[in-house]
Amino acid sequence: MRIFGCLPHVLLLLVQTKSKKTLARPGVKNIVLVEGVRTPFLLSGTTYANLMPHDLARAALQGLLNKTSLPKDAVDYIIYGIVIQEVKTSNVAREAALGAGFSDKIPAHTVTMACISSNQAMTSAVGLIAAGQCDAVVAGGAEFMSDVPIRHSRKMRKTMLALNRAKTLGQKLSLIGSIRMSHLSPELPAVAEFSTAETMGHSADRLAAAFGVSRLEQDEFALRSHTLAKKAQDDGLLEDVITFKVPGRDIVSKDNGIRPSSMEQMAKLKPAFVKPHGTVTAANSSFLTDGASAVLIMSEEKALAMGYKPKAYLRDFVYVSQDPKDQLLLGPTYSTPKVLERAGLSMSDIDVFEFHEAFAGQIMANLKAMDSDWFGQTYMGRKAKVGTPPMDKFNLWGGSLSLGHPFGATGCRLVTTVAHRLKKEGGQYGLVAACAAGGQGHAMVIEAYPQ
Fold first, then answer.
1. What share of the chain is helix, strand, coil (3-state, %, to 5)?
2. Where are the alpha helices (H) located in 247-372, listed in sequence order?
3. Domains held by the chain: number
4. 55 alpha-carbon distance from chain centroid
5. CA distances from 310 to 82, 86, 137, 306, 420 (A)
6. Could you tell me the EC number(s) of this protein (predicted)?
7. Does the CA dihedral 372-354-129-60 come out positive or negative?
């Protein structure tokens, strides 16, 4: 199944005015996205290399304050998502909030849910507002892959802790004498499933093979992502990106991983995970990325009272979970029909789709699963297939393959992008969907705010 032909050059000429019903419900509080920002997403090991995760989170929060002129005590709560935590700042939400100058009276907590960590931060914010606990919540996410915790082996850790407790010189010398060369081998972190010990790249390769996704299809999709991202960047559409003066380094104002190549160059790359016959390569996978994002979420009533013009309504959302071995990355396939059902919408009602691109093979496998009656009937208990998003509505400003994927920060980027695209393209409903480690997934419906 070849989904792609030429790139959709004339899409923005087809802006339509929609007249669909609103998803507002009697007696249910309207919750709005007021603003969303992010630091430039940079390849790990580049300009952000000497920072820490809370530095990036702080920059995103300061960018949000600058863009909204929000009083620093006007927020009720702050929630941040992160995946690989720096031990010194385990509650990165609190440290970043204090660093950004928010009132120290504002509580803050940190969540982790793999690649949907900031999605969880946002929906937790929605829950707090819906429950009447808060009127204004800042949610966000950060990831810093330039410096990840590398631990001593467990035997070495136990010896060092025992040394710390030892009271006599004899006890200390005895413990030091017990250290062997093998104890000095470090434990390196890996983007792998704890339950299966399989790296995500291997899972993506197996998933692509299971759904018959060719190397050519994956490379075509990756090239599409980079080409669309470059056009969006050049056209000034990525308006959520803030300028950030990196301490001791340059001022950064744009993502640096967008690199349109050619099919010929991409075809030369060797498989990155399953060798020699795999189809997942460095060119059709998302890259290790540093970055942070932040969004301001309010009750509509509070936003209007403070003089804000919201960007979008945050409507129904779902979380799903599947077998982490064979269906690790199929979150969008399972979450999309569920969230549409909750909202009372069909696939054809959605004007803007933004799916997280972990790997081109993962996206293509999801699209093929969604287009399969057999998969819908066998695995999802449906009478027929889910149906696929039209490519002329899908990730039109690039995606994680090209813009970058700081694990904890991507969800906020997806939601903010939907809000901006709905305004630009004249649509009414957008849908965000993402997969995550552990076989989990998320989807949310976003409704355009009346112009």
1. 40, 20, 45
2. 263-267, 300-305, 331-343, 360-370
3. 1
4. 19
5. 26, 34, 14, 11, 11
6. 2.3.1.155, 2.3.1.16
7. positive
The phi and psi torsions of 241 (rounded to 5 degrees) equal -75, 125
Which tokens sit at 326? 């064979």
Residue 186 in any domain: the answer is no
Cis peptide before 332 (omega within 30 of 0): no
The domain of 378 spans 28-148+286-446
Instruction: Give residues with Cβ within 8 angstroms of 386, minimum separation 6.
Output: 333, 336, 337, 347, 369, 370, 371, 376, 380
What's the rounded Cα separation, in Å, for the pair 450 and 22?
Answer: 10
Question: What are the residue numbers of the active site?
Answer: 115, 405, 435
How large is the greatest C-alpha to C-alpha distance in the chain, in angstroms?
A: 82
- Calpha distance 449→451 (Å, rounded): 6
Residues with pLDDT less than 50, the chain? 1-18
The pLDDT of residue 19 is 55
Beta bridge partners of 289: 43
Contact assessment for residue 321 and residue 441, using Cβ atoms and an 8 Å cutoff: yes
Residue 203 falls within a domain, yes or no? no
Phi then psi dihedrals of residue 420, to 5 deg: -70, -40
- What is the reported pLDDT for 11? 38
Q: Phi and psi (nearest 5°) for 382?
A: -100, 160
CATH number for the domain spanning 396: value is 3.40.47.10
Q: What is the DSSP string of 1-21?
A: -----S--TTGGGG-----PP
